[in-house]
Each structure stands twice: as structure tokens, then as C-alpha cells.
Design goal:
alpha/beta; single chain; 388 residues; globular; 34% helix; 4-stranded parallel sheet
């Protein structure tokens, strides 16, 4: 399914999968059919912060970016720390979701880091457990969480941030990772690290894998393609963890090559324009990424000769699905124009967020169609009434 297809064959492929008739328009010339991707790190902001994003707008952005599945972070209101609270989110997702939404439960109640969530009750209903946005500082509490998560057959999805160190420092990330890997070794809990950004973290993960620990990690497009030298006094460059130096970026790229980095996720984190327009120091942490991830990665890494297209698909789809046990529906695929260059313009996004460091970048890789389970959920011209 990762091959170039002539116009007629693409149209026939779509017709066979969906029953929708598409005339042989030039838009399908020399297209590439790829699987639907899986983003394991997305903030949809609903319930609680729908002025930033809703499940409807966020999943529409996901479909426009070629994603068929998204794993959603639990920093919501209410936090999904109980079945009752989780149900609020899942009911909205069932009603409004354009793509498949897989929620994460929180590790601690309210993500406060003091009491554990209802892990055993939540485990069959969530993709894993995370206190994303904050690190769990209490060593004993994290050990107990890992023990209970392991027993429940789930996985810890860790935001590593030790608040004893400045957020911008390397230590803030890798010191807590170092602790977590020791606890994962003791408890046998499956462990996944969110948005790795430092070379020290990569070294720790590489060593842990060598010893047989059940550990994986993700990084994000901005850590692979930007460094501190690119940062301007603008909120669109502010995210957590912060972008590091060129040596860290180069180490992450090396981590793609040797398999230390298992997957790429967006950490799509929309905010209002007001929250992101206060300059770098005063703006909220977080940028959007669902609609820019593939074109940025394809343009800068694949066309740049760093990795191949097959490897990019593995990082965006195969590895995430394997790690988080995502079952792909039949007749799920995306259709891409990989040749025609275009400029990233946030005003055209489906997400409510507009803040991206890739604004104005010339890229290749435009998603023309996203099909999930034989149903068209996005087309480049308009989504219209094509809902799942």
C-alpha cells in the first residue's frame, strides 16, 4: 500500500474501498497511498478547555494530517482518573470524533502527584497511564503506580520532568527518566517515555533496551528538525520540553537510525491566540502539530536523505500500533500528493490552534484523502458531510 499508483488505479482503489465515485481528476495524478498514521501524543483539550480545542476540531485536524488514530493526554477537566470522569471524554469522542480516539488515564488523581488514580478500573478502558504535563515526583508513589499498572496489563507513558531542576535544563528530563528506568527494572512495568529531547535521555534508553527492559520512547518533529539557534522571541517556539541544541537534534536523528527512537508523535498542544502571543517568555507551552507532522518530516528527513519513506511510515504507524496494541481497521488508508510544494499557512488549519514554528515553511506532502474503515473522513477539497 506504500506504492505510487496511477490516476485510474487510485480512483479504482478508493471506489473499491468506499463505494464513493471520484471522477478521474488531475488531483489524483501520481498519488501515493499510505496507511493511516497513529499519533500517540495528542491534546484534544475537551472536556474542560474547549476554547483551545474540541474533540471535533482536533480529530478533524488529525484526519487532515493523515492520522487514523490518536492517543489523548489526560490533562483535562475533569482529569480521567476514574471511570466516571473518563466517560465524559469517551462519550464526546464517540459523538464528535472523526478519527479513532484512544484516551490515556492519569497516573495520579487530578494529576496532583499525591494519590493514585483508579488504575485497575481504568486499565481495560484506556491506552495507558500518564500524568502528562508534569512529572510524578514521589519515588514511592511512582513505584506503586508501576506495580499496579503492570498487574493490570497496561503501560506507563511518562512525562519526565524533575522540578528540582530548571525546565530548560537537560537534567530536568533525564534525571527523572533515570529514576523511572530503575523503577521499571524493579517492577517489570512496561514503560514509554514521552517527547524525548536530550542526548542523555537517549543514552539511558539505549542502555536500558540493551539490558532487556520493556521500554520505548517517542520524539517529535520539532526536536528532529529545529535547534536552539532557530528560536525567536515568539510563542510559536515555546513547548515543553523546550527545544535543545544541535547536538541533541543530531543525537535524536542518530536514534532514529539505530532504533533507539521507536516512534514520532506530535505532542499537538493547541492554545488560544492570546495565550501564544505574549512573546517567548510569557506564552503558554505547546504548539500544534497534527496537520504539519508528515509534510515537515517528509520534506526535511525523507527528501533530505536522512530516512526513507518506509521508515517514516514505520515511525508514524507500525511502531505506535505495535506498542499500544492499536488494531487497524480494514480499508483504512490515506492518499498523498508528495510532489507539489506548498507553504504551511496556519490560517488554513482545522485545529483551533494556530501556533507552529513551521509557519511559512515550504513543504511537500499534502494529504488528499483519509479513509477509515471504508468511510471517507477527510478530503482535501472539503470534509462536508463525509463523517464516520
Amino acid at each position: 500500500m506504500r506504492n505510487r499508483i496511477k490516476t485510474y488505479d487510485v480512483i479504482k482503489y478508493i471506489l473499491d474501498a468506499t463505494g464513493e465515485i471520484f471522477p478521474p481528476r488531475g488531483v489524483f495524478n501520481n498519488c501515493t497511498v499510505l496507511p493511516g498514521f497513529t499519533d500517540v501524543h495528542v491534546h484534544l483539550r475537551e472536556p474542560g478547555f474547549s476554547y483551545k480545542e474540541t474533540i471535533a476540531t482536533g480529530t478533524m485536524a488529525a484526519a487532515a494530517g493523515g492520522f487514523a488514530h490518536v492517543l489523548t493526554m489526560p490533562n483535562l477537566d475533569p482529569v480521567p482518573d476514574s471511570v466516571e470522569n473518563l466517560k465524559i471524554q469517551t462519550e464526546i469522542a464517540r459523538r464528535d470524533g472523526i478519527v479513532d480516539v484512544h484516551p490515556l488515564g492519569s497516573i495520579t488523581k487530578g494529576e496532583k502527584g499525591t494519590l493514585l488514580s483508579d488504575i485497575e478500573e481504568l486499565a481495560p478502558l484506556v491506552a495507558g497511564f500518564s500524568d502528562d504535563g508534569v512529572g510524578v515526583m514521589d519515588d514511592g508513589l511512582m513505584k506503586e503506580a508501576m506495580e499496579r499498572v503492570r498487574e493490570s496489563g497496561s503501560i506507563i507513558v511518562a512525562h519526565c520532568e524533575d522540578t528540582n531542576y530548571p525546565r530548560e535544563s537537560h537534567q530536568a528530563e533525564y534525571k527523572q527518566l533515570e529514576r523511572d528506568l530503575k523503577l521499571a527494572d524493579i517492577t517489570g512495568c512496561p514503560y514509554h517515555m514521552c517527547h524525548v529531547s536530550t542526548r542523555e535521555s537517549l543514552s539511558l534508553i539505549r542502555d536500558a533496551k540493551a539490558t532487556g527492559l520493556d521500554v520505548t520512547c517517542e520524539t517529535a518533529p520539532h526536536y528532529l528538525t529545529l535547534s536552539q539557534e532557530d528560536i525567536e522571541d515568539d510563542g510559536k517556539y515555546k513547548m515543553n520540553p523546550p527545544i535543545k541544541c544541535k547536538a541533541d537534534r543530531d543525537a535524536l536523528i542518530e536514534g532514529l537510525a539505530d532504533g533507539t527512537v521507536d516512534m514520532i508523535a506530535t505532542d499537538h498542544a493547541p492554545h488560544s491566540m492570546e495565550e501564544k502571543s505574549r512573546g517567548f517568555s510569557k506564552s503558554a507551552y505547546g504548539i500544534v502539530g497534527l496537520e504539519t507532522a508528515f509534510p515537515v518530516l517528509y520534506t526535511k528527513l525523507v527528501k533530505g536523505g536522512t530516512i526513507g519513506l518506509d521508515q517514516l511510515v514505520t515511525l508514524l504507524r507500525d511502531k505506535p500500533n505495535e506498542r499500544f496494541r492499536i488494531k487497524e481497521e480494514e480499508k483504512t488508508f490515506t492518499v498523498w500528493d508528495l510532489e507539489t510544494p506548498y507553504v504551511i499557512r496556519p490560517k488554513n488549519f482545522f485545529t483551533k490552534g494556530r501556533s507552529t514554528p513551521f509557519e511559512g515553511c515550504m513543504v511537500r506532502g499534502r494529504c488528499l484523502l483519509t479513509v477509515i474503515g471504508g468511510k471517507i473522513v477527510y478530503s482535501d477539497e472539503s470534509i462536508g458531510d463525509l463523517q464516520r
